[in-house]
Design brief:
The protein is mainly α. Helices cover 41% and strands 0% of the residues. The protein is elongated, with a radius of gyration of 20 Å.
Length: 114
Amino acid sequence: MEFYNIDSAAINTYLSNPQIVYNASQGIEMIITQKYLSFFMNSGWEAFYNQRRTGFPEFSTDGPGILNDGMIPKRWMYPESEIQSNRENLEAAISSQYPNGDTVNGDMWLLKNE
């Protein structure tokens, strides 16, 4: 914050906020949430995949305009270009990974229990 010339009083006020002070019992959640915030709109899909992998930050899915029956998608669908140019291999990949078809709610390999 000093690099961005933020006043030291503002820095101290921010760092003393109870939501910011490190709490060891919530350590992983706090660290991953900060990581998510630093990656958001800054590092491609990294924030999305880390959130899906860890569950942090937790998102509310009960507000207005929520789609997908209130579930956060677990994966991206295969792109239209893949359907057009590689349908046979795409269908083989989908059937081997997702017995219920190509859905955003299917568990990708990263989320499957071994």
